[in-house]
Amino acid sequence: MQTVTLNNGVEVPILGFGTFQITDAQQAETAVIEAIKAGYRHIDTAQSYMNEEAVGRGIAKSGVAREELFITTKIWVENVSYDGALSSFERSLQRLGLDYIDLLLIHQPYSDVYGAWRAMQTLQKQGKVRAIGISNFAVDRAVDLAEFNDMTPQVNQIEINPFQQQTKNIAALKAEGIMPEAWAPFAEGKNDIFHNAILVAIGAKYNKSVAQVITRWLIEQDVIVLAKSVKPERMSENLDVFDFELTEADKQKIAELNEGESQFFSHTDPEMIRWMASRKMDV
C-alpha cells in the first residue's frame, strides 16, 4: 500500500476505509473484517458514528497485527474542550479496545477547539496518539490553530470530490505542512456521479470504474482517500488503482466538473452550527 508521510514523520496508508453511516453493529464489524481482508490497513471511525465498539471488534477479529493497522477516530462537538477531549478519548479507546490511536481529529471546527487541541497535544506527547489533526476546518482556522499552539495539525480531513475539488485549499494546506484527507470522494453518489459521462469515458480508457478514476485522481494529488462500502467486491475494486495513471487531458476534463461548493452543507452556515451544538450524543 502506498503511504504518505505527515509533518511529524508518521506514515499513513493513502487509501483508508471509512465507516460513516454504517450504524448497524454487526454490519460495521463485518465490514471492517472484510475491508482488512481486502487489503485496507487504514480504518476511519468517529465518536459520532456510534460504531466504535463494532469497529474495534472487527479490528480484533481481523487477524492482522495492531501495528500493521492505522486507526483514526474523531472527537465530537460536545467533547471539544480540554477536559472533554481527554475524557472522551479514553472512552473511545475503551470502545475500540485499543492501547493507542494512530490519528485523532477534532471532528468539527466548533466549540473550544483550542482547549481540545491542547489536550490532544498532551495525548500525543504521552504516546497515546501518534498523530493529531482536524476535520472540516477552513485553511485560515487551521493556520490559526497552528500559529498559537505548539503543534501544527498533521491532517485536515475535508470534503473533496469532483464537484468540490478544493484545489486552492489543498495547495494551501500542503504549504502549511498539513496533509489533506478526502471524505466523501464519491460525493455519496450525488449528481448521479457514478454515471457521469466524463468520468465514465475516462474509466473506459483504462477499464476502470468511476470510483477507481476518482480514487486515482486523488492519489495523484497526494491526498489521503477514505472510501466506504459494505460490499467486499467494491472494497477490493476501490483498492485496485495502482496499475494506471491519468493523463493531463484526463485531469483537465475532471477539472471541468468542479462546482466549487459543498455537495452537503456549508460549515459557515449559522443554522448548521446551531444544529451541531444541539446534537448531544453522549459519546
TrEMBL record:
InterPro entries: AKR (IPR020471), Aldo/ket_reductase_CS (IPR018170), NAD(P)_OxRdtase_dom_sf (IPR036812), NADP_OxRdtase_dom (IPR023210)
GO molecular function: oxidoreductase activity, acting on the CH-OH group of donors, NAD or NADP as acceptor
UniProt keyword terms in alphabetical order: NADP, Oxidoreductase
Disulfide bond listed as a keyword: no
Matching Gene3D superfamilies: NADP-dependent oxidoreductase domain
Residue ranges of the TM segments: none
SUPFAM superfamilies: NAD(P)-linked oxidoreductase
Site for Lowers pKa of active site Tyr, residues: K74
Top-level taxon of the source organism: Bacteria
Limits of the NADP-dependent oxidoreductase domain: 15-259
Statement: the UniProt record of this protein carries the keyword Cytoplasm: no
Residues of the active site: Y49
Residue numbers binding substrate: H107
Protein family: Belongs to the aldo/keto reductase family.
Record's protein name: Diketogulonate reductase-like aldo/keto reductase
Biological source species: Listeria rocourtiae
Lineage: Bacteria, Bacillati, Bacillota, Bacilli, Bacillales
